[in-house]
Specification:
By secondary structure, the chain is of the alpha+beta class. 28% of the residues lie in helices and 35% in strands. Strands 1, 2, 3, 4, 5, 6, 7, 8 and 9 form a 9-stranded antiparallel β-sheet that branches. A hairpin with a 2-residue loop joins strand 3 and strand 4.
Length: 210
């Protein structure tokens, strides 16, 4: 296997400053709609990057479940590694990669907890197995075997039946953007990169060199 020989020419589209408009959320919503229309696998999947108290970064895939002018929302276990890192340093970055469209979106900003009401409202929409799983998994902790998870799930099922409540250790986060970057692949590696950065409450649009 020779990885240095792997090549791809990006020829799907283009992005200029005029087409990007002046509101990054609107452009993101358009691009997300394009990903949905193109039936991109898991178009709402995004990489979440956090940094621990020791300065060591970590990433994982999470799913965006809501977005509006306030920010982008995802849900997880507050006691997980990402939850602990966000508690210590509530700054994060997100990245969407829609390979089929040759597009990447990067988002940076501070992170806050969603309200308990928002977390409750989303939790009840989850499949029953997922709600039980929120009780069964001590996320990011070392366990001796998968049997631990199955035993925890069985106990939670017996305890709560068909109506498990939201655990206190599980809920939503909202990333409040101060930077958006939109990347569109182009030929000859001369890609289009348009960044929006928040400056005194106003979005400043800039083209970045690839």
């Amino acid at each position: 296997m020779n990885l240095s020989d792997l090549r791809k020419s990006y020829e799907h589209g283009s992005l200029d400053e005029a087409d990007a408009g002046g509101v990054p959320l609107a452009l993101f919503q358009n691009w997300l709609a394009d990903a949905l229309a193109a039936k991109v696998p898991e178009p709402n999947a995004m990489t979440l990057a956090t940094v621990g108290p020791d300065g060591r970064p970590s990433t994982r895939i999470v799913l965006i479940k809501d977005l509006d002018e306030r920010g982008l929302v995802f849900f997880t276990n507050y006691s997980s590694r990402k939850g602990r890192e966000l508690a210590a340093n509530p700054q994060a970055a997100l990245q969407f990669h829609w390979v089929e469209l040759e597009r990447v979106v990067r988002v940076e900003g501070r992170v806050e907890l969603t309200s308990a009401e928002e977390s409750d409202a989303y939790f009840v929409t989850r499949p029953l197995d997922s709600r039980i799983g929120a009780w069964a998994s001590p996320q990011s902790e070392v366990i001796s075997s998968r049997a631990v998870l199955l035993a925890n799930a069985a106990r939670a099922s017996a305890r709560f039946g068909l109506h498990p409540p939201r655990p206190e250790h599980w809920g939503g986060y909202r990333l409040v953007p101060d930077t958006w970057e939109f990347w569109q692949g182009r030929r000859s590696r001369l890609h289009d990169r348009v960044r929006f950065r928040l400056d005194a409450g106003t979005w400043v649009k800039e083209r970045l060199a690839p």
